[in-house]
Write a structure and sequence with these properties.
This protein is mainly α. It has 6 helices and 2 strands. The chain has a single domain, classed as Cytochrome Bc1 Complex, Chain D, domain 2 (Orthogonal Bundle), CATH 1.10.760. Helices cover 43% and strands 8% of the residues. Strands 1-2 form a two-stranded antiparallel sheet. Helix 2 crosses helix 6 and helix 5 crosses helix 6.
């Protein structure tokens, strides 16, 4: 029994370490998005004035979508499925975020969308910033 418990705990250590190494949505946002969208995600980042299109306020996405956060649309924009002129083609700015573990979310129709866990973490972070 002792060996089984020790083996079970040892098996969990690598998984726990991997989870701890994953960046949070806030960290990924700060590293990849804040330059244009601003620290508070209001479209006022230090690079915003250099972009030829208006940088959107990401804290009012739910308001713009009738009170519902558009998680699937946000994921599609971040991971490059929906092209945005300001992000280039395909979004090279987010290369680092598009590596690593995968995640799956469902559309309203129940269709699965596979994306990267880091992308989903940023989308979840943005959902928490809604006002």
């Amino acid at each position: 029994m002792r060996h089984l418990l020790a083996f079970s705990l040892a098996a969990l250590i690598p998984a726990t370490a991997a989870i701890a190494q994953e960046s949070t949505g806030a960290e990924n946002y700060a590293e990849n998005c804040a330059g244009c969208h601003g620290e508070a995600a209001m479209g006022d980042g230090p690079l915003a004035s250099m972009i030829s299109v208006e940088v959107p306020d990401l804290t009012v996405l739910s308001r713009r979508y009738g009170g519902n956060f558009p998680l699937v649309d946000v994921v599609r924009k971040i991971d490059g499925r929906v092209q945005l002129r300001g992000h280039g083609d395909p979004m090279p700015v987010f290369g680092g975020m598009l590596r690593g573990a995968s995640a799956v979310i469902d559309t309203a129709d129940g269709d699965p969308i596979v994306t990267k866990a880091a992308v989903l973490a940023v989308a979840d972070y943005l959902e928490g910033l809604q006002r």
